[in-house]
Fold this sequence. Notes:
2 domains, alpha/beta, single chain, TIM Barrel, elongated, 11 helices, Lyase, Ornithine Decarboxylase, Chain A, domain 1
Amino acid sequence: xxxxxxxxxxxxxxxxxxxxxxxxxxxxxxxxxxxxxxxxxxxxxxxxxxxxxxxxxxxxxxxxxxxxxxxxxxxxxxxxxxxxxxxxxxxxxxxxxxxxxxxxxxxxxxxxxxxxxxxxxxxxxxxxxxxxxxxxxxxxxxxxxxxxxxxxxxxxxxxxxxxxxxxxxxxxxxxxxxxxxxxxxxxxxxxxxxxxxxxxxxxxxxxxxxxxxxxxxxxxxxxxxxxxxxxxxxxxxxxxxxxxxxxxxxxxxxxxxxxxxxxxxxxxxxxxxxxxxxxxxxxxxxxxxxxxxxxxxxxxxxxxxxxxxxxxxxxxxxxxxxxxxxxxxxxxxxxxxxxxxxxxxxx
Length: 347
């Protein structure tokens, strides 16, 4: 099937770029000497996760239980969930998952630890856990090495959970004293640390430097090893995704309308809301729910109704979460269609 026969809007992946990004990160981490545990929240596609594992990832990271369930259903059996699991419905799902695969979960409070413990005891299993440290993200995590030590001490006394180590996000060299003091305190208590998990695409060298036993990287799979949110970085050589759209209106010489809006792309700032591969001077300056508004005043090309365009979305992970399927293309040929099985799994 030729790509121009696709109905639109359609989410497509350039397979050559995808494979290059996957293999590039695997090589990068191998050269650094830091094990890679890929984060799948960017793509949520089991087949892509398996490609990452085949390239050398020691397992995967899933941000939410729903994503982990999808991956276990697909046969992946080594998963870290770096998220506080709270509430009876989730706890029952967690213990069910632990009995099917090797699942490790992060936590940062005694309340969370107690909830997991009680459900694990009730269901006759043990849940491996790690303690999250807040080393500057201002998100989750204990606030001091002493707090990490205290929580680890409590976990060691609690049935149903098994202390495995610590994690931080993002990895940065400022975290090194925090991590080292935590390790020293745990060592003084005789508490073994099997996992020191760092994270953040682009921080692999920092993970190695601060003593992590693994590094979690995710957005690189679609966007290379650079930061999200910069439209100047949306080059076909490093970005995997393309939203194939159709011009549905040419109301003025300076403006065209495409058949993809906020429900296709998300309206993630800043503008332009994506990079039009065939005509880089065309700028998506606005979006309504189902329309993309494109300024073509700087283009010499005469756009026509029915013409197809390929757009690299500004935030590829958020865009992917809006679509049911991902079409893999090589050149102008459709090679594979994958279900985005983890899309919408925010629970």
